[in-house]
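anyone seen this seq b4? input:
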Amino acid sequence: MAKQQDTNDTLFPILQTTPTGLGRMAAEASHVADGHRIEFRALEVRSILNKTTSRRRLSLAWSINPYRGCEFACRYCYARYTHEFLGPEYRDPALFERLIFLKENAAWLLEQELRTHAPTEEIALGTATDPYQPIERTAKVTRSLLEVFARKSGLRLGIVTKSSLIERDIDLLQEIAARNTLVLHVTITTPDNSLARLLEPRAPRPDLRFATVRRLREAGLTTGIFCSPLLPGITDSREAIEQMARLAAEANASFFAAEPLFLKPCSYGTFLEFVREHFPKLTADYEKRFAEDAFAAKPYRAELALRVRMACHRHGLATRSTDALLTRIPQMGRKPVAPLLLGQTPQPLFA
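predicted toks r here
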């Protein structure tokens, strides 16, 4: 095979390709460290602020992801496709959790880019990869970015994480919140530790994340809970959503939000493998639901939205809509729910 390749390179030099752009940067990325079945590389990047567009109706202006790839290995992760931008050799979805790139000079780049940044435009930290995944303990890329934000005023920053490691940076988060709009979001998909370990193999246990929400709130920081994604037949029942809302209230969460599963082609195979292994009776339903579209059907989305609103109402939690800016602080306290909605009889999710 090697001899054939050498012959092709000699006879057909046009077939020899040199990576460019992100592909070149990935190819030149230097080895940093190894974890359990994970390799870490330092990635040279030209910018740290990314202009955001989204089919999910997210009104985000700019995003920052300190890392490319994520150790948490969430079965449903919609960002696995991002490694494909590095070149065809990175198309294996599993590489997203096994080959992690650390963005070099992130703090310096942010300092430069904020000089021309409009303060009215929101910045979301952690939209595709978790900014507090395990490597952050030693790499401290996220902390270096927060140190930059702590010197600024008038910005709007939203942070999303599954990790209790965010507690390490409470000092910086308080400094940022004193002069900027800062809203924190801790994602907790289920309170069941066993299920969470299957869904999010390397993320902290749910009970640790609930404790993190309490500590962040005690530190005076606006912090809510994302119970996303809601998984059909697994975590989307009225009882499951009610339990999550109750636990959010007990943790003194600033708000509670939950959205249905969004299953992109890059994660379809990985997640269906999970369903076949652990919830085989739901396999046919999932195959049908996501056969032609990554998004849940509109009636199903509306039903889940109603369930979330009613649960929030019962537990005195503010809500957050799917298209809300991450830094739009929800109104605290009980939010009235229209009598018509409260009186409705929800339609069954499954026939």
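The chain has one domain: 20-337. Residues 276 and 283 are 6 Å apart (CA to CA). kinda curious what u guys think
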